[in-house]
Amino acid sequence: MIASQLLSPITPALKPDDTIEVALELLSEYRVRHLPVVQNQTVLLGIVSEEQLLSLSDWDETLEAQYLPPPIKVQETEHAYEVARLMSLHDLTTIPVEDKDGNYAGLVERKQLYDWFCTILNVQADGVVLELEAKESRDFSPARIAYLVEENNGKILSLTTDSPLDWEGRLRVTLKLNTSHASRIRHVLEHHGYQVLADFGEGETDEDLQYRAQAFLRYLEV
User: Fold this and answer.
1) Other C-beta atoms within 10 Å of 170: how many?
2) What pLDDT shows up at residue 133?
């Protein structure tokens, strides 16, 4: 997915001769905190923020009378990951997009990126979510995890990784699986050195109950 495929079909840009009041009304109407200022529908002049506009005293002034710093922008061929990175880095709710000729092509809203990420992560699909810990990043093998999951009648719908700052050298892996019961998969992953930190959305099965009962009996024998 690239920026040109994420352009908002409805959210407009502001014009230089729009007043501060008009700009604030549009920000409120489209529920964003940032909008680009575009001249003649093609020339990107800058971005204004709700915070900046609210700090002004004369709402009858036009945008062209305000200081507009060089805008944060992306090219229409940039991948959605780069769009998300810049929006997150600069805390933007919209980001303008330019075409190959440097003309304004439209804007991407944060909500559109959110919806896209939800789609590729299969958020709406039913299934169990497992959070694993790999002791070191070199121990992490997506192919190995996929093999273990599929060998136990499961399928990975999405896989993401992150390294929390307080986990030195360790890697957290989040799996979304296509099953509502993943006890066998969880046990297999743990057997192969992955610590399962948490699981979500899993129902209790007969196998789970049997496993708990056996564990309890082993505890009594100690």
Assistant:
1) 16
2) 85
